[in-house]
Amino acid sequence: MKGEPAMEHYDIIIIGTGAGGGTMAYALAPTGKRILILERGDYLPRERENWSTEAVFKQKRYQAHETWYYNGEPFRPEIHYWVGGNTKMFGAALFRLREADFGEIHHAGGTSPAWPLGYQHFAPYYTQAEHLYHAHGQRGIDPTEPPTDGPYPFDPLPHEPRVAELKADLERLGYAPFPLPMGIKLGEGTGEAPYLPSTFDGYPDLTESKADAHVIAIKPAVQHDNVTLRTNRMVWELKTSADGRTVTEVHARHNGETEIFRADTVIVAAGAANSAAIFLRSESDKHPNGLGNRSDLVGRNYVCHNNATFLAISKESNDSIFQKTLAITDWYGPSADWEYPMGLIQMLGKVDETLMAFEAPEPLDGMTYAEMAAHSLDFWLQSEDLPDPNNRITVTLPTDKSGGF
Ligand SMILES: Cc1cc2nc3c(=O)[nH]c(=O)nc-3n(C[C@H](O)[C@H](O)[C@H](O)COP(=O)(O)OP(=O)(O)OC[C@H]3O[C@@H](n4cnc5c(N)ncnc54)[C@H](O)[C@@H]3O)c2cc1C
Questions:
Q1: Tell me, what's the ipTM?
Q2: Ligand 1 pocket check: which of 13, 86, 95 to mutate, most ligand atoms within 8 Å of Cβ?
Q3: What spacing in Å lies between the alpha carbon of 81 and ligand 1's midpoint?
Q4: What digits encode the pLDDT tens for the residues 367-383?
Q5: How would residue 315 be classed by pLDDT, with cut points 50, 70 and 90?
Q6: What pLDDT, on the 0 to 100 scale, is given for residue 402?
Q7: Which domains does the chain have, with CATH numbers?
Q8: pLDDT for 1 beyond 50
């Protein structure tokens, strides 16, 4: 720490600008409260590489340059520190959890306990979020769809011919494929040119048509005079009053110095792993296991989707530019095929030759990667993880508390 740290007081500090922090900033901005948003990343530049598969997937240009450890083995986490957080890269598929997701669920590997809250507690917020994030979809087809109080704000995205054919094939087999709910601005407003999505799913969106938290929430929030966004501020720890009951200071790192901010209310929305890390780093005499961690549960039971890419190479070519318009939940819960839930299937944006070469260990006999990409239907398979107290975030604090994660 060089010199005296600066100190400023706000009504509210929000840490993080992703789906959580960005949306919170959007909702609170009109209150007129003095709001400070602290974001460790910068604005993601709009540049040619946004749409380069080579740059995005192979060179990992927008992924955090950070080393984490799993059982002592170093790895580079697939995490993105930008204004908008991980939503700058997300696929913008906007699903609600299902009613059954809040209850006890039996999986092949164990039981996922019931939540203390139910779907009905979240339903009104889902409706607001679908409107804010420009959700396009169609109710009444997805067999697992929870009850809602109205249609999606926008019609579903149209299927390209090959996807429409796949949908018809699935329906013939008795399944219920439905339009994938997507958060996207298609240029529906008066005087706007239409937007035709292509390189979108897992890429930053050069056109800012993807409904990410930066475009949808942070941009309008910072138009308010009472809202200040400070980028490149990594919140290191929260300090409390002497009795340990009130957060009094937020310590953030910027250009090698520590800045100190105060607020009446502090909202931690730094993502699942980094929010836990902030609380764990905020250990003190009053909170020896980290802030808010008397239960020793902070950072534990880290749950993530289990994801897989599934590529079906067909004799028929697939000329789709953007296939991310269809989803299937026929096996989401227990089914005649398997007594346990298997999860969700949705289409991927579209795998190109470069990504095909990256994803497939070797080309199929007699085919080039380009031919494989031109004939593949690309699926994203998503099943759920079970809570495990030993699947956890921990932080290693250097004795001088100067850095390290
Ligand atoms: C490639 C990809 C595709 C995805 N596709 C979908 C999808 O189609 N649909 C869907 O619903 N979800 C999708 N997700 C998941 C979705 O993006 C996340 O669930 C969501 O962004 C989580 O929001 P969050 O606010 O909790 O965290 P994040 O979006 O991670 O935001 C956290 C923010 O906090 C900042 N931050 C972290 N630590 C600190 C610190 N110490 N100090 C200050 N700031 C900090 C980060 O830089 C970031 O901006 C996808 C994710 C990825 C990576």
A1: 0.99
A2: 86
A3: 8
A4: 999 999 999 999 999 99
A5: very high
A6: 44
A7: 1-90+212-303+389-405 (3.50.50.60)
A8: no
Q: Are strands 326-328 and 178-179 parallel, antiparallel or unpaired?
A: antiparallel
228 C-alpha to ligand 1 centroid (Å)? 20
Q: How far does the centroid of ligand 1 lie from the alpha carbon of residue 322, in Å?
A: 23
Q: Token digits for 190?
A: 């008066």
Which residues line ligand 1 at a C-beta cut-off of 6 Å? 15-21, 38-41, 78, 81, 85-87, 89-93, 202, 234-235, 269-271, 274, 278
